[in-house]
């Protein structure tokens, strides 16, 4: 029962982090950092029944700090920061739309795209793992990209 509550809290913290950062890896890093802060500052929580809201607030603040930190690391140059921030928010919206589109795909096709574009496997590596010809992998990727493109233009 307690583990279920912790798992639920973790999932809610991930959702908060995903809304604030630009990819799943960053969201997981943010939640990990938030857990460290929660564990080290647990004595400052006055009302135990507000743990969920407190954890989400810490997660949101940690995500904001991570975003601020990543902007400092980016090379400066002639870039207009206000345009860059607007572009980053657009990127977040695009990532959400991509996630929604991937959720519409069957699991096998979704896995294929993730292996190819998220994890960076080569067509030959995917074909060997799935024990199908490389041409089959290439054709499936091509057809799926076309289908996604059609879905996006609706």
TrEMBL record:
Pfam families: Sigma70_r2, Sigma70_r4_2. Residues 96-148 form the RNA polymerase sigma factor 70 region 4 type domain. The keyword Secreted does not apply. Residues 10-72 form the RNA polymerase sigma-70 region domain. Keywords: Sigma factor, Transcription, Transcription regulation. It comes from the Bacteria. Belongs to the sigma-70 factor family. ECF subfamily. This is RNA polymerase sigma factor. It comes from Paenibacillus artemisiicola.
